[in-house]
UniProtKB/TrEMBL annotation:
<dbReference type="GO" id="GO:0016787">
    <property type="term" value="F:hydrolase activity"/>
</dbReference>
<dbReference type="InterPro" id="IPR036412">
    <property type="entry name" value="HAD-like_sf"/>
</dbReference>
<dbReference type="InterPro" id="IPR006439">
    <property type="entry name" value="HAD-SF_hydro_IA"/>
</dbReference>
<dbReference type="InterPro" id="IPR044999">
    <property type="entry name" value="CbbY-like"/>
</dbReference>
<keyword id="KW-0378">Hydrolase</keyword>
<dbReference type="InterPro" id="IPR023198">
    <property type="entry name" value="PGP-like_dom2"/>
</dbReference>
<dbReference type="InterPro" id="IPR023214">
    <property type="entry name" value="HAD_sf"/>
</dbReference>
<dbReference type="Pfam" id="PF00702">
    <property type="entry name" value="Hydrolase"/>
</dbReference>
<protein>
    <submittedName>
        <fullName>HAD-IA family hydrolase</fullName>
    </submittedName>
</protein>
Length: 244
């Protein structure tokens, strides 16, 4: 049997939970309405905006491209300040949804995490989402204290695809990159994990199934289909990556 990973580091958004389409997107739209901003992100357009990492950056990018915001777009400071204000409102709205249990784990996530815990494989989460909503979501999805290490956007200076979040998670775990596995859902996260030296499993979702994920050690559409991911399966992925 292949050795088990020394640790497994999960992304959060889109990986542990399918948060983007019916979670973040809805919260953004409610925040736009609350601030009287004539923006509405439908499912398709929001999918395009996911190429921009970070919610505040997405707001800036979309406001800057609109004809009716030419004056605002010309004032970079004002645009950034507006985006920051709207993003704070969005974060509060999304955190409220998390706390009332509106966001659930993707099928197969809980069983995989339970199997890792049973095999005494440390579980970590590396996300560049803000702690205000990401911390309660991690605890709700995995259970309090299940993640031995958590890295949030507040802890790093650079967002994915920069590897800083993964490097910090590995440092806090005390684990070498070549002995651990990352689990991601999208191309920017894959790039971040690989840049940190991690063999990476990509489990795609509605928005990311068409991403270019070449370089992933394993690509799947679901955690539990065609067969459930397990601690042993991730050990096999790691062994194959080490031998490549």
């Amino acid at each position: 049997m292949s050795p088990l990973p020394a640790a497994v580091v999960f992304d959060l958004d889109g990986t542990l939970a399918d948060t983007e389409r019916d979670g973040h997107r809805v919260a953004f739209n409610r925040a736009f309405a609350a601030h009287g901003i004539d923006l509405f992100w439908d499912i398709e357009h929001y999918g395009c905006l996911l190429a921009v990492t970070g919610g505040r950056r997405r707001i800036v990018a979309d406001l800057a491209r609109r004809d009716e915001t030419d004056d605002l777009a010309a004032d970079e400071t004002a645009l950034e300040e507006l985006a920051e204000t709207v993003h704070r409102t969005k974060t509060r709205i999304f955190a409220e949804e998390v706390r009332r249990g509106a966001i659930t784990a993707r099928p197969g996530v809980r069983s995989l995490v339970a199997d890792l815990v049973a095999h005494r494989v440390p579980v970590a989460v590396a996300t560049t989402g803000t702690r205000a909503w990401a911390e309660p979501l991690v605890e709700r999805l995995l259970g309090p204290g299940t993640a031995r290490v958590t890295v949030f956007g507040d802890d790093v200076r650079a967002l994915k695809p920069d590897p800083e979040a993964y490097l910090l998670a590995l440092e806090r775990l005390g684990v070498a990159a070549e002995d651990a596995v990352a689990v991601e859902d999208a191309a920017p996260g894959l790039a971040a994990a690989r840049a940190a030296g991690l063999a990476t499993v990509v489990v795609t979702n509605h928005y990311t199934r068409w991403h270019d994920v070449r370089g992933a050690a394993l690509v799947r559409e679901e955690f539990d289909d065609p067969r459930p991911l397990t601690a042993v399966a991730l050990g096999e992925v790691l062994t194959a990556a080490q031998a490549a």
